[in-house]
Structures are given as C-alpha cells and as structure tokens.
Description:
Layout lengths: L2 E6 L9 E3 L2 E8 L2 E7 L4 E3 L2 E3 L6 H13 L2 E2 L5 E11 L7 E11 L1 E2 L9 H6 L1 E6 L2 H10 L7 H32 L6 H15 L16 H18 L8 H10 L12 H15 L4 H13 L13 H13 L2 H15 L5 H17 L6 H25 L4
Parallel strand pairs: 1-8, 2-9, 3-9
Antiparallel strand pairs: 3-4, 3-6, 4-5, 4-11, 7-10, 8-9
Helix pairs in contact: 3-4, 5-7, 6-7, 6-10, 7-9, 7-10, 8-9, 10-13, 11-12, 12-13
The structure holds fe (ii) ion (2 copies).
The site of one fe (ii) ion has 6 residues, from α8.
Amino acid sequence: MKELFTIDTKDYNPEGRVHRRPSARAIIEKDGRFLVMYSQKYRYYKFPGGGIEAGETPQEALVREVREESGYEVIPGTIEEFGSVLRRNRDAHDSDAIFEQENYYYYAEIGGSRVQITQEDYEIEEGFVPMWVDNLYALSRANRGSLRSGGDPALIEREMRVFDLADEAVRARDFARDEAAAIAALGDEDYAGMLAFVRSVLEDHQTEGGRGANKLEFGYSRFEHTKRVLGWAKRLYEATPDKTGIRYADLMIATVFHDVGRGVDSPMGHAKAGVPITRDYLRSRGFEERRTEYICALVGEHSDKFRMADPNIDRTLLMLMEADCLDDMGALGLVMDTLIVRGRKENATFYDCYNHYCRYTVPMQKECPMVTPEGKAFWDEKTEIAERFVSLIRRDISLFD
Ligand SMILES: [Fe+2]
Ligand SMILES: [Fe+2]
C-alpha cells in the first residue's frame, strides 16, 4: 500500500519494546458526502475504523469496525486501497515501550440496512457520533483547531492530514471522471487514443529544462491547453446556430493536434511543424487522404491569427482559431499572468502582478480578436472579470483612496 506519511514523536526510548497495533480505516462516500466520526468531547473528526484483531485481515477489521462505530455495512467487494500512515510514539500505558501503529486507509462503499451501534467504552466516553459531511477540507481545518482540545494530538493530526490528502484525491478522481465523460461525448473517433498520442509527444519534450517553444514555463502545460481548447471548440460549435461549412469531427481532431508541433524542435514554427506529425498519425489510423490533408491544413494554419479577419476564411479553421484564443483569457489568463510574473522574477510582489495586469492583461483582453458573434459573446463573458479584478486588487494594495 502507498505510504502517505509518518508521524514520529520521538518521545520514546528507542531501545524499548515495540507494541504494534495496526488499524484499518474507511473513506466512505455516498451521494457526494463522507461518513466520519465526530468526538463530542474533544471536537475533532476521524474516519471510522479501528484496530485489526488477531486472525483478522485489514478488510475484515474494516467491515467490523465501521459496523460497530456507525451501524453501516461496508460492501466487502468495494474495498480499495488509499494509503497508509505510520505512527510511532511512547506507549501511553507502558512508558518504557514504543507504540507503533500502521493505519491502513481504504475507500469503501456501504449498502444494506443499518444495524445497532456497539461502541467500545472509550468511544462512548469520547461521545463519538457518526456524521455525513460534504467537505473533507473543512474537517481538516476543524481538526487543526482541536489539536489542543485535550484529545490525542497525534491522532487528530493524523486524521487532519489524511482529510487533506483524501480531499485532493477525491477532487482529482472527479476531475478525471468528468474528463473521460467529456472525451467519450465527443463522438465516434478514438479521441482518447489521439489525446494520449499528443500528450506523449508534448510531454516527452516539455520539461523545465526543455528546449525551444515547448519549454515548460511558468507551469504552463501545452497538453492541458490542448484539452481546454477542445472544450472551447465544442462550446463554440454548440452555440453556433448556423453550422454550414463547419466540419465538427475534423474540427475536434485538428484541435487535438493543433499544438502537437510544440513537441519538436523545428525552425518552421509550431503550426507547420505539427503537420507531418498529424499526417503520420492519421494515415497510420487509415484516415482517408483528402480528409487527412484537410485536417493537416487546419493544424498548419491555425497560428496565423491575422487571417481571422479574412471574410473568406474557412469556418472550421476560424472556429479552431477562436477556441485557441479564448483559452488564455479571463480568470485563467489572470492566473497564467501571475505565474508568468513569478516565473520571470523570483521575488515578485503583489505590486508586480498588479502592474503586469494593468500593462498587459487588461489591454490584451480589451483587444478582442473574435469574429463570430458566438466567439465575441464568450470573450466578453470570460474577460469581464479582468478589469473588475484589477480595480479590486488596486484597492487591496493601495494605502489610501
Ligand atoms: Fe498554436
Ligand atoms: Fe494553441
């Protein structure tokens, strides 16, 4: 199991006997809420679970402990590893010994009907009650506030840190699920396969020490940009009432590949450099020649943003360009510019950021390159935050006015 962290108070005799009491703990989610135990006496939270008894597997202990503490039945087939935390401190009952506890955390689901709670004496004494909560991060903060409440500080800290890690993991899992659903909704082509290919080309070269246009600067991932542009291309397409001349599947494929050329060093510029990579991929997947060349033309021409004003521009190409331009704007643009300021100057201050927003972000967001009414509407919606944000920051950093 993945080791999450260790809590070692080093308050024991290192030569002392070691008392081991491994435990199993459950991260149970139902309808977006989590099952936790609240100590009414010391006002902290913990995941349900407890000691693994002799002859028991961790999974068996998990089912039994959750049942005893909360009355809920864990479905054994749903138990999945999350991670383990090692705790080492002086044994409270034997001052010459070391108490060593390996805590195994598992994801699990519950089902069936609820049974009678049968808590142990110390649990009754602490006033443990089961509770459903919707925010693990809030529990981590609550535990921080209860570290000196008189309860076991190592336990409260342990749960506090696991709440944070579980919160992060759950968010990342939900994001990955949404992303997979979004990709599946794109259509019949193997978009997941194309994205995996583009990711491998981009990320192989995108390192902090990388060269050329694809150098990883300011935490800007070209692959993440690609996925976001895909989202904007889809939104633009759906928002456009007259879809004449827009080839949706080709737009999606060209969007996936549009910046793949950033993964290679080439004097041609990244758009043109992406053409042979796109062509090889599509040919190898049996795409018809004319379609392959059309998609390659979209990729090769996408960065010539002056062409957006051309009234005869291909509508699919225009949509790709608009989607590409929309990504870096608005709230995301403000975060990106903050990262850029920080990347250029290690000791950058709030004032440096504010200055950059005034000189660069706001003027750039005012210069709308969008051509279609749908693109303009998205642009305005996205960028309206910039000016307001900057005026608020100005007030925050000004002494008087
Ligand atoms: Fe590009
Ligand atoms: Fe791009």
